[in-house]
């Protein structure tokens, strides 16, 4: 959101114009949805975080002194909500890496042409890339989510820095560290999936149940980093930023109905669970800021 028209739209929305608010939600929702989804990975409550972010943004418009900073303020609000959710999630059981996916191998009978083989390998690269993000720390996953939007042209580096409350120089360091860990995680997954698997790596990983525990990442990564065999078979063919572009940004998806707007209004102030209403995220947000979403 960069133009004079965008600023005018924000000002109109801040003044309470329902149509302006509706249009602003439509413009901002894809960015917030992608940011939250990338930061929270497969968290089933990610849509709740998206909705809470949008509600806070719409309700906080009247207090925004500089409309030109709305986009950066929105991203900062999203990151704050992500951090709150991440703190809640840390107490839960560790997520499992999809080993059944990582252990899949292509049927040789189907690999009848070089282009088919290349497609299979690139798809596996994308799978490994997404699986590797689970080995990032919570803070690094937030950096990843912002960097993902930057690579896809949705955010500038300055906006990423502001969202992280860091200088551009410190932001560059944080992004680089995240990318280094992501690359090493991809190498570990590639080496683990190799057939035959390095015997020393197999011994190092004996007893590993596939959890995304930091201690297992350290053990496996230490071996892969120092093993010429694992280093050779684990080296990714496609750079991470190229995969980010090919994977692209996420599309907002419909959510299962848990409560209607009418039921929520009768029950008083909506709880988090009551905020989920029929339709796509834009419609759900609109229902709780008293907008009238356009048909379709």
TrEMBL record:
GO terms for biological process: DNA-templated transcription initiation. Keywords: Sigma factor, Transcription, Transcription regulation. GO terms for molecular function: sigma factor activity. Residues 24-90 form the RNA polymerase sigma-70 region domain. InterPro entries: RNA_pol_sigma-70-like, RNA_pol_sigma-70_dom, RNA_pol_sigma70_r2, RNA_pol_sigma_r2, RNA_pol_sigma_r3/r4-like, WH-like_DNA-bd_sf. Belongs to the sigma-70 factor family. ECF subfamily. This is RNA polymerase sigma factor (Sigma-70 family). It comes from Kutzneria kofuensis.
């Amino acid at each position: 959101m960069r133009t004079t028209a965008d600023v005018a739209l924000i000002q109109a929305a801040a003044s309470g114009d329902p149509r302006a608010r509706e249009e602003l939600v439509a413009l901002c929702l894809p960015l917030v949805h992608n940011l939250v989804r990338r930061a929270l990975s497969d968290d089933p409550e990610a849509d709740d975080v998206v909705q809470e972010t949008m509600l806070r943004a719409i309700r906080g418009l009247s207090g925004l002194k500089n409309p030109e900073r709305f986009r950066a303020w929105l991203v900062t609000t999203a990151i704050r909500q992500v951090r709150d959710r991440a703190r809640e999630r840390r107490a839960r059981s560790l997520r499992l890496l999809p080993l059944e996916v990582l252990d899949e191998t292509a049927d040789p009978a189907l690999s009848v042409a070089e282009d088919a083989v290349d497609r299979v390998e690139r798809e596996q690269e994308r799978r490994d890339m997404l699986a590797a993000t689970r080995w990032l720390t919570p803070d690094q996953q937030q950096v990843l989510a912002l960097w993902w939007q930057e690579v896809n042209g949705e955010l500038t580096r300055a906006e990423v820095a502001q969202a992280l409350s860091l200088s551009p120089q410190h932001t560059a360091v944080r992004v680089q560290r995240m990318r280094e860990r992501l690359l090493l995680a991809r190498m570990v997954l590639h080496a683990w999936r190799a057939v035959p698997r390095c015997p020393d790596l197999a011994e190092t990983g004996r007893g590993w149940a596939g959890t995304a525990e930091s201690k297992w990442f350290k053990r496996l990564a230490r071996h892969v980093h120092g093993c010429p065999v694992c280093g050779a078979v684990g080296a990714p063919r496609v750079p991470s930023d190229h995969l980010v572009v090919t994977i692209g940004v996420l599309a907002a998806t419909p959510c299962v109905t848990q409560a209607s707007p009418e039921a929520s209004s009768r029950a008083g102030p909506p709880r988090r669970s009551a905020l989920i209403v029929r339709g796509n995220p834009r419609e759900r947000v609109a229902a709780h800021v008293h907008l009238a979403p356009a048909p379709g």
